[in-house]
Write a structure and sequence with these properties.
Part of the 50S ribosomal subunit. Contacts protein L20. By secondary structure, the chain is mainly β. It has no helices and eight strands.
């Protein structure tokens, strides 16, 4: 059984006991959260989508909050003496899918 669910503006294919890294979510570590924007669900070869999924939910548990790898932004204009170096680390939340209910 798996489902395609929209989490923080992105679509993910999720299954039970799967770990995901998503954009930062509100909530404490260990808290349980529900996602009700299920787009597609598959159960033993039968697919459901659209109006069949109005009551479908995906439950997850927040494992931890962390930062991604550092991305270096470097700007330069030749012969002008202009250099600018900047860095960015994206905030992520690691979640564990605990169940899919249709």
């Amino acid at each position: 059984m798996y489902a395609i669910v929209s989490i923080a503006g992105q679509q993910f294919k999720v299954a039970k006991d799967q770990h995901l890294f998503v954009h930062r979510l509100q909530g404490d570590e260990g808290a349980s959260i529900e996602f009700d924007n299920v787009l597609l669900a598959e159960n033993e070869g039968s697919f459901k989508l659209g109006a069949d999924l109005k009551s479908a939910k995906v439950t997850a548990k927040i494992v931890s909050h962390l930062k991604g790898d550092k991305v270096i932004i470097f700007k330069k204009k030749r012969r002008k003496g202009y250099k600018k170096k900047n860095g960015h680390r994206q905030q992520f939340t690691k979640i564990e899918i605990t169940g899919i209910s249709l």
